[in-house]
């Protein structure tokens, strides 16, 4: 299984520190993180027998989009969180204006970084379409909008599933679909759409479970859902049923990946590791 | 000279109104506007003997980036403005969270829109690099950061020129450079870098002049610079000297455009019209 050390070094070399917005971008981008999305991409590339460093430009653009979404989501107008990735949120360490600009700059640079990469023009265009579509108004942003709409309301499990598929699942799916494009394995697009959706939901339920079983220090971020009066899988299902649902989803993912000629050993190992995460 | 009616119709057909973020995107994107950047693009294309409708996808992406920057710049954490483009600012008409998401979504969709256009992959990549680089951390966003840094400080004319070249000049230059790429007239890149820079500054000085000579109703936006304790060309130079500087810059632009075999008649006519604007 590919681990994240070399990718971390690559990521830390991309953005200079010449002025405050660049410092603010790196403050959040380089904070301690699981790097779930880049690691899914790199491990799936390895399973496709592609040198994983080919995935670095797309992996870093994907992590920039994820990081911008965290910075904006932590703002006072959103969840108003104080801690993220083990340290003060961006707007607390800098200020609101700088945090908004750093998010905007990370989003913009994610596309510039891809456009400047060594990929062919045709692959660049495919990856830009994918990243923009899944993170934009029809994907992640729609999920963030639903999150706000649901705040303080009685919502159903189906509502939560729809929201989390957009808010979390879409960007996880980008990692897997992106690997299919980069490895030129488009026959797997449909399979990894399904895997990404299930994994995104499993990951979000785990977050809800950790919100009630772990503490801020362990998680490295504020646990604001209860304060913000948000429904969670735990509040709707009970803790044990939420845990069961995670197990079911991970088994389904394993089954999906086992039907294929390709054994996807690295991807499976990464997902198994995620199943036992405590942060 | 190309006017904006057909482009307005095109622009209004791009984004659906299926949920609140899309409504908020269109609220600001389709508000009354000079459409300066798209019009520069379309008129320069006409001067290059290219059907101007070829410029619509890039012109709309450019207008989306400009609009996102206005939405975020009006937020309470920035200029805290109440009026823009003749109506309430986005966060006043909706709320802060929706305004931040609508800005993020316009920025993201500007790249998706370009990636989905009829341009060749090679042209798409060139235009995405241009748009991202000139609007991002090394361009417009750097100008917005300087704007904040200069607030309440005694700054020099050179400081203002540097800031406005980044904050306003860069995106105006994108329109002109983009036309050179689309028309495959890259021998003019250097000329239009110079024109864009001068035009951006002239436009910004005009804004400062209108801030003290026009009223909110005429401008369609709040005149917050004095309230926010910002230095302007008028406060540093006097009203008459600021007016003289606009005239000098526009003459220099005309001279630059007159040295060439191509007469750039449509572009010159548009710029002459801008010289006498009252809003």
Short recap of the structure:
With 279 residues, chain A is mostly helical.
Structure characteristics:
mainly alpha, 68% helix, 14 helices, 279 residues, homodimer
Can you describe this structure?
The structure is a homodimer of 279-residue chains. Chain A contains 14 helices and 2 strands; from the N terminus they run ααααββαααααααααα. The first copy, chain A, has 279 residues and is mostly helical. The first copy, chain A, has a two-stranded antiparallel ribbon with strand order 1-2. The two termini of chain A are 20 Å apart. The mean pLDDT of chain A is 93. The A-B interface holds A 15, 19-22, 25, 68, 72, 75, 77-78, 95-98, 100-101, 103-105, 107-109, 111-112, 115-116, 121-122, 124-125, 128-129, 132-133, 135-137, 141-142, 144-145, 148-149 and B 15, 19-22, 25, 68, 72, 75, 77-78, 95-98, 100-101, 103-105, 107-109, 111-112, 115-116, 121-122, 124-125, 128-129, 132-133, 135-137, 141-142, 144-145, 148-149.
Break the fold down into its secondary structure elements and pairings.
The structure is a homodimer of 279-residue chains.
Chain A: H1 5-12, H2 20-29, H3 36-47, H4 56-73, E1 83-84, E2 87-88, H5 90-93, H6 96-115, H7 121-135, H8 140-150, H9 157-182, H10 189-213, H11 216-219, H12 233-237, H13 239-258, H14 265-275
Antiparallel strand pairs in A: 1-2
Helix pairs in contact in A: 2-6, 3-4, 3-9, 3-14, 4-6, 4-9, 7-9, 8-9, 9-10, 10-13, 13-14
């Amino acid at each position: 299984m590919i681990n994240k050390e070399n990718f971390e070094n690559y990521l830390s070399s991309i953005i200079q520190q010449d002025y405050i917005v660049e410092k603010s971008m790196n403050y959040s981008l380089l904070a301690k993180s699981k790097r779930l999305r880049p690691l899914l991409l790199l491990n799936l590339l390895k399973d496709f027998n592609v040198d994983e460093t080919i995935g670095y430009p797309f992996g870093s653009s994907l992590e920039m989009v994820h990081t911008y979404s965290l910075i904006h989501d932590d703002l006072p107008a959103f969840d108003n969180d104080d801690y993220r990735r083990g340290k003060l949120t961006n707007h607390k360490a800098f200020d609101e204006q700088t945090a908004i600009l750093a998010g905007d700059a990370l989003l913009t640079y994610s596309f510039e970084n891809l456009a400047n990469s060594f990929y062919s023009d045709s692959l660049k265009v495919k990856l830009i379409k994918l990243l923009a579509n899944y993170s934009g108004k029809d994907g992640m942003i729609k999920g963030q909008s639903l999150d706000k709409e649901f705040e303080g309301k009685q919502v159903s499990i189906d509502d939560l599933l729809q929201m989390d598929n957009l808010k979390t699942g879409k960007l996880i799916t980008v990692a897997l679909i992106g690997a299919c494009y980069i490895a030129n394995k488009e026959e797997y697009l449909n399979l990894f759409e399904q895997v990404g959706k299930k994994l995104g939901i499993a990951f979000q339920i785990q977050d809800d479970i950790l919100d009630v079983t772990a503490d801020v220090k362990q998680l490295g971020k504020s646990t604001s859902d209860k304060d913000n009066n948000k429904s969670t899988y735990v509040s709707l299902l009970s803790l044990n049923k939420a845990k069961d649902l995670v197990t079911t989803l991970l088994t389904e993912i394993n089954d999906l990946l086992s039907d294929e000629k390709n054994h996807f050993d690295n991807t499976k190992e990464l997902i198994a590791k995620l199943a036992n995460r405590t942060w």
